Amino acid sequence: MHLFGTETYKYCPLCGGELEERLLKPGEPRRLVCTHCGFVFYIDPKLAVISLVPIKGGLVLTRRAIDPGYGLWVVPGGFVDVGETLEEAVVRETLEETHLRVEVVRLFNVYSYKNSRTVVAAFLTRHVAGELAAGDETLEARVFGPEEIPWPEIPFRSTLNALEEYLELVKTGKLPLS
């Protein structure tokens, strides 16, 4: 059995030697180790951010123009770039995908799942400028009221979980919808 994500890595990024799985310490997962120079290739998670943008009595969702999930609905978000804070990333991704400028209100939740390389930080944001429109990675951007959310067309567990948790807080009066 391969470690999750290791099947795509065959050669050392330092010397080009072959990588093999080894147990380095009891209790830890097996690691990829170069058979030539001994370099340990850690398979670390990728960090992504998503933005909950309440506006006009609903939440902003975008229809994806890229895979995975082409044509399906998500909240704005994407991967964090090296040298960028989580807050900068969520503001940038929201602008790129919706043309909305937002400010971060607070960290909403963090989602991680067994056998997934992506850790997702969800932020509650506030719309401060811009008109809602599709960006270059989106087919469509629109506001959905709580009863209008296209649940069967949401491809990512983190988006589903964030929307469910947010709407539950709205329903119980702990958060406003706009």
How is this structure best summarized?
The chain has 178 residues and is α+β, with helices and mostly antiparallel strands.
Q: Which CATH architecture of the largest domain would you pick?
A: Alpha-Beta Complex
Q: Which ranges are low-confidence, i.e. pLDDT below 50, for 5 or more consecutive residues?
A: none
Q: What's the CATH first level of the largest domain? A: Alpha Beta
Strand content: 25-35%
Secondary structure class reads alpha+beta
Strand order of the largest sheet: 8-4-10-9
Average pLDDT, rounded to a whole number, is 94
Number of strands: 11
Number of helices: 2
- Compute the number of structural domains: 2
Q: Give the CATH H-level superfamily of the largest domain.
A: Nucleoside Triphosphate Pyrophosphohydrolase
Order of helices and strands: EEEEEEEEHEEEH
Estimate the helix proportion, in percent: 10-25%
Largest sheet: 4 strands, mixed
Which radius of gyration do the C-alpha atoms yield? 19 Å
How is this fold's topology laid out?
Layout: E1 19-22, E2 31-34, E3 40-41, E4 46-52, E5 54-55, E6 58-64, E7 73-74, E8 77-79, H1 86-98, E9 101-111, E10 118-129, E11 138-144, H2 157-171
Parallel strand pairs: 4-10
Antiparallel strand pairs: 1-2, 2-3, 4-8, 5-6, 6-7, 6-11, 9-10
